[in-house]
Design a protein that fits this description.
Layout (H helix, E strand, L loop, with lengths): L20 H6 L4 E2 L16 E2 L3 H23 L19 H28 L6
Parallel strand pairs: 1-2
Length: about 130
């Protein structure tokens, strides 16, 4: 087997001691089973490719995005509190603000799960074998 001698000039481009962000964007990519997420819910990988069992990847992405979306609703609604009834005792009737918050949770969760499924469907590449 023939080999080429390593070029020792710094501008040869053959060996890259320290990868640059540009190199990562244009060549390499991340093979993932579950994404890392930024605060806005977007994936924090370089050109991600889902591998492994597709149903598992979808379930993980749905759970991850749903929890993050529901948490975002809670953060936006901070300050909501349940008060006491007129007689000083707690009320057994559902609090309107809590009901609205639960509905917002469900809406955010459904949207997040749909986003998760779209991402995995678009980026899944099989079992990685």
């Amino acid at each position: 087997m023939a080999t080429s001698p390593k070029k020792e000039t710094p501008d040869s481009g053959v060996v890259q001691e320290q990868p640059t962000p540009a190199a990562a964007r244009h060549g390499d990519h991340d093979r993932i089973v579950m994404a890392s997420r930024r605060a806005d819910g977007s994936m924090d990988q370089v050109n991600p490719e889902f591998i492994g069992d597709k149903d598992t990847a979808i379930a993980a992405a749905k759970e991850q995005l749903a929890v993050q979306a529901v948490s975002a609703v809670d953060v936006a609604a901070r300050g909501v509190s349940a008060g006491e009834g007129e007689d000083g005792a707690g009320s057994s009737a559902p609090d309107a603000e809590i009901k609205a918050l639960k509905e917002a949770h469900e809406k955010a969760k459904d949207a997040a799960e749909a986003q998760a499924e779209r991402e995995v469907e678009r980026l899944h590449q099989g079992l990685g074998e």
